[in-house]
Write a structure and sequence with these properties.
about 325 residues; alpha+beta; Beta-lactamase; eight-stranded antiparallel sheet; two-stranded antiparallel ribbon; 12 helices; Asparaginase_II; Asparaginase
Length: about 325
């Protein structure tokens, strides 16, 4: 496996301003068919990456397998990088209260809400950055609730040696089919595990396919159903991850920092991508193109994948994938 993510990267998207290409984003993308074969790839499908928040659905699978007992919007919020809107925060508070815990037990890095209006409101009320409003607070609340259910300690739940984090390693390795060879710390403070894009796509395809089977009561199926049914809780107002899952029935998608995106389809097909420069700007356009290659009607994802380039506040160009129906 390639450990240098820059090796073999290829152009994924071009930024068009006026009649010129202003910039180009390199990276890697893989589209898997339902049988796991590669339907399309640019760059290296086996490039080793940090999946960032795209790992959250797999972390949630591990939590369910070790005692977390939530569903619906609550489970979607555990998988989320939420925008910090008040309805998101209410779910986090409920998750904590249900486990006999409070906001003080959260150990994720304090931050402002991702949603600009929510952040402005917090400032207007005299509040500062908080663990509750940081986008990973649902995941951390789920981790804490899992520890309570399993009888594990909560004060050290972010330690890589903690039973919860070891369970996440085992789940990630099994779901992706790739050994976890690298561990570091994510922005929120939780352990972050390496995988490959092919492995990440494989895991998302399995989650989405399991969710589509009404007889499947497994943890992956429960995660997939919760995310697909509650896309707003996975992201928030104006978020492209919410738009994609709203537009495509049964789609399970999760954005990640530093240019990562992964998505699974009900038939087991899947997509994963990494933008080399870490930019979030081309992610939606590339995901839309990849989903079209995977068999999704391009018209369904055109709106979610549209990223205009503005000049004086009006569109003067667009970010366009280098492949797919609009290439």
């Amino acid at each position: 496996m390639v450990t240098d993510v820059a090796a073999r990267a290829e152009p994924l998207a071009r930024v068009h301003r006026g009649d010129l290409v202003e910039s180009v984003h390199l990276g890697h993308v893989v589209v898997l068919a339902p049988d796991g074969s590669v339907r399309h790839a640019l760059g290296d499908p086996d490039a080793v990456v940090w999946p960032r928040s795209s790992l959250k659905p797999l972390q949630a699978v591990a939590m369910l397998d070790h005692g977390l007992d939530v569903a619906g919007a609550d489970l979607a919020l555990v998988c989320a990088s939420h925008s910090g809107e008040e309805a998101h925060l209410d779910v986090v508070r409920g998750l904590l209260a249900g486990a006999g815990l409070t906001e003080a037990d959260l150990q994720n890095t304090p931050d402002w809400p991702l949603d600009p209006d929510a952040a402005w409101e917090r400032r207007a009320q005299g509040h500062g950055p908080a663990s509750l409003t940081q986008n990973c607070s649902g995941k951390h609340a789920g981790m804490l609730a899992t520890c309570r259910a399993a009888g594990w300690s909560t004060d050290d739940y972010l330690d890589p040696a903690h039973p919860l984090q070891q369970a996440v390693v085992a789940t990630t390795s099994q779901a992706t089919g790739v050994p976890v060879d690298h561990v570091t710390v994510d922005g929120c403070g939780a352990p972050l595990l390496s995988t490959t894009l092919r492995g990440l796509a494989r895991a998302f395809g399995s989650v989405a396919a399991a969710a589509h089977d009404p007889q499947d009561g497994s943890a992956p199926a429960r995660v997939g159903r919760a995310m697909a049914a509650h896309p707003w809780h996975v992201g928030g107002t104006g978020r492209d991850v919410t738009a994609f899952m709203t537009a495509v029935p049964g789609l399970v998608a999760k954005d990640g920092a530093d240019g990562v995106y992964a998505a699974g389809l009900p038939d087991g097909g899947a997509v994963a991508l990494k933008v080399l420069d870490g930019s979030g700007r081309p992610r939606a356009a590339v995901l839309a193109a990849a989903l079209a290659v995977a068999g999704v009607d391009p018209a369904l994802v055109a709106g979610a994948g549209r990223t205009p380039v503005l000049g004086h506040g009006r569109p003067v160009g667009a970010v366009r994938a280098t492949f797919g129906p609009d290439a």
